[in-house]
């Protein structure tokens, strides 16, 4: 591998480091969903995580690892959602400032969360170039350390702790599924699974309307996201370079789900499990249900990535 990725010892150390800042989330199952899916599913509920998403892990790990000098100037990032809130919260717990560049069209619930955790929001036009140039200006002015949302070793190491818990609590899984957007969760999941349970396949779910990871995986090179269009607003980002290397090495497959399939899977979890998840979170289950033969009779772990949904805009 061209990069030196975190070792299993590094991931375990990260887990110990962030323990005071995160929940150890429960694993739930549903007999009704198992019957519909034709396999046994164990849902790792990161929708119950601090800030309502797995992102709390990577942000906490990145902030705790900063030097005292870096901490004194705070942290900055650009994010339209869960990473923004996660970093603002991690900074708040550490008693340091956070500067969050958010596109003007970011969901209100996510802006409220960032403000609630004491983050300073700097709005920009809703495109990647505007996000990046605004962030550069903020970093130049404040001296804050940029903590990228997913393509960053300390963040990947933090996200890798999620499946560490899953495999401790529920070993002997045939398949583990995670959604893929930037790839921080999927990359971390694939790495930990490779160390702890190499026989377990890692399969990603991705929206058909934002399928750059699928295209990149098939082509063997990064194909940037262009004009994504999906209800899964947390998975609109282009795949990270570090994460792509992990995916190429340790992910068995990437399966697509259409928006109607994502909505159906989301609704199924609401109705059968009585828990709140966001659209991005339903993508792995949607992909599984669209490819049932592949999972028949298997034991499948699915990471429910987050539950930050605007209830006024539910798709059903």
UniProtKB/TrEMBL annotation:
Residues 19-306 form the Tryptophan synthase beta chain-like PALP domain. GO terms for biological process: D-serine biosynthetic process. Keywords: Lyase, Magnesium, Pyridoxal phosphate. Its cofactor is pyridoxal 5'-phosphate; Ca(2+); Mg(2+); Mn(2+). GO terms for molecular function: ATP binding; D-serine ammonia-lyase activity; L-serine ammonia-lyase activity; magnesium ion binding; pyridoxal phosphate binding; serine racemase activity; threonine deaminase activity; threonine racemase activity. Its EC number is 4.3.1.19. It comes from the Bacteria. InterPro entries: Ser/Thr_deHydtase_PyrdxlP-BS (IPR000634), TrpB-like_PALP (IPR001926), TrpB-like_PALP_sf (IPR036052). Belongs to the serine/threonine dehydratase family. This is Threonine dehydratase. It comes from Algoriphagus iocasae.
